[in-house]
Amino acid sequence: MPSIEERFWRLVQICVHGPQCQDCHWPWLGQVTHGGHGIFYWYYDHTKKTNINIGAHVFMWSLIRGTMPQWPLLIRHTDDMPSCIQPYHLAIGTSQDNSDDMVTRGRSSCRVGMLNTRAKITEDDVRYILQLHGQGFSAREIGNIINISRQQVTNITHKRSWTHITL
Ligand SMILES: [Zn+2]
Ligand SMILES: [Zn+2]
């Protein structure tokens, strides 16, 4: 049985320059969402009787940095390439940083959700959640990937919040 880390590294396409390279994109070769984010099957939770999946970029961060970011901190892609998990193309930040980036790059045209002061996640997060939901991920799995509560996930997938966001 390969270890979790061995399984993980087999799914990372490291560039020809090797692990020291800080420049090239390292695409995730495993499962990806519609939005292109890599999903890594982490472990089977015998108590909850469910597979625990995690964002491949989040797992990469935890391997390299030794800590798992907890909400409201997120691992962000700094290269506009969701499938890339090159450690030097990842940065830690809040979901607000993420949305600031999006606005700076002109990718966000709708700010309705941001005006809600109770909003803790971004519209980008919401689309990602809806994508994962559409792929059959459970609320628990999605919460695990995004680092938010299962309740927050179901509020979104059941259209109790963020109702203006569609895929
Ligand atoms: Zn390289
Ligand atoms: Zn990259």
Characterization of the model:
The protein has 167 residues and is an alpha+beta fold. The protein has one domain (4-157). It is 32% helix and 14% strand. The protein has 6 helices and 4 strands. β1 (39-45) and β2 form a beta hairpin. The protein is globular and about 50 Å long. The structure holds zinc ion (ZN) (2 copies). Residues 15, 17, 21, 23-24 line the site of one zinc ion (ZN).
Structure in a nutshell:
The protein has 167 residues and is α+β, with helices and mostly antiparallel strands. The chain has helices at 4-9, 56-65, 95-104, 123-134, 139-146, 150-157, and strands at residues 39-45, 50-55, 73-77, 90-94. The structure holds zinc ion (ZN) (2 copies).
Q: Which spans have pLDDT < 50 for at least 5 consecutive residues? A: 102-119
Mean pLDDT: 80
What string gives the helices and strands in order?
HEEHEEHHHH
Strand order of the largest sheet: 1-2
Shape: globular
Termini Cα gap:
39 Å
Tell me the total number of β-strands: 4
* Number of alpha- plus pi-helical segments: 6
Compute the gyration radius: what is it? 16 Å
Largest sheet: 2 strands, antiparallel
User: Structural class of the secondary elements?
Assistant: alpha+beta
Helicity range of the residues? Answer: 25-40%
* Distinct small molecules bound, one entry per kind: zinc ion
Approximately how much beta-strand content do the residues carry?
5-15%
- Can you tell me the number of structural domains? 1
